[in-house]
Amino acid sequence: ADALAVAIGVRGSTEGDFIRWLSDAVRDAAPYELPVVAHIYPRDYSDGVRIVFTPEEIAYAVRVGIETAERGRRRRMIVGLGCLAHDHVAVTDTPWAAGKGHIIHREDRFGGNAPNALATIAALGYPAAYLATVGTSETGDAGVADLAARGVTTDFIQRLAGADPVEAHLTITADGERYIAFDNSPLARTPLPDHATIDAALAKASALLVDATSAPEGSIDVVRAARDRQIPVVLDVERDPTDAVADLMNEADHLVVPLSFGRRLTGRDAPEDAIDSLWGSRRSAVVLTDGSRGS
User: Fold this and answer.
1) In 3-state terms, what secondary structure has residue 283?
2) At what angle do helices 15-29 and 55-73 cross, to 10 degrees?
């Protein structure tokens, strides 16, 4: 063949399947240097289904083509940096205001902001890798195995005695409220992996996700190395920043902050005003999250 033509429709409930099909076609054609001609048709479902030609919908189709082609040529690996947690979860039968209640469900599981995000990314079919130092205890072994079982690449994990997962106890009440009590003392014994491991991870990364609160000492150097390679840095910040976290915030181009914290941090109540205050010359995006209400 001299070329491959692929026709897809965008908008509607089948859009995701079509985009994945085009992405797979581009990826499969790349080793043969085979051009892919994409025919992308924006559809409108307001009255049956029809192809539309408005400037906005044409622009959307073009953007889908550009991003899908890039994704197909180079499978994006999201590299995550931040602590691994061992969560002990208890679910109660009463709301938070009741003050006490029966435990109706218990489970132990592994989590942490960065590992959970990476597992979600992997579940969506995108390569994800954890960059970390993890302890050599049975809990550490189980945590690494759990990440691998959830599809997260563990090639960039180094093992070190004492660098065990953070232990956390979560109480979830019947009305969806939660309280987390944690022992993060292992973080003081958890350094970054060595330079060779960091370089190997960044060489395969198209984005770096950092949990600012639990990132190991020296993570600012990893963030700056990523930026030097033009790798986007997504920083998740949840609590009042230390000097180290403030440095990370200054370097990150994608900032993710809970709305309540963003208001407290900036002193601005309206979400758009808080975003304006958090914006800077390095920013590509500021996202304020608001729990079940989205972002």
Assistant:
1) coil
2) 40
CA gap 59, 63 in Å, rounded: 6
- Dihedral sign of CA atoms 268, 270, 275, 276 in order: negative
Please give the Cα distance from 210 to 198 (Å, whole number): 13
pLDDT tens sequence across 14-63: 888 888 888 888 878 877 888 899 999 999 988 889 999 999 999 999 98
pLDDT at site 29: 84
**pLDDT over 80 at 98, yes or no:** yes
Tokens of 294: 């989205």
| Helix 219-228, helix 195-203: angle, nearest 10 | 40
Q: Please tell me whether residue 171 adopts helix, strand or coil conformation.
A: strand
**Per-residue pLDDT averaged across 243-252, rounded?**
91
Q: How many helices (H) and strands (E) does the chain have?
A: 9, 15
The residue with tokens 């579940």 is 123
Count Cα atoms within 13 angstroms, Cβ side, for 113.
17
Rg (CA), the chain: 22
Residue 182, both tokens: 């944690």
User: CA-CA distance, 185 to 203, in Å (whole number)?
Assistant: 31
For the segment 116-131, the average pLDDT, to the nearest whole number, is: 91
| Confidence (pTM) | 0.74
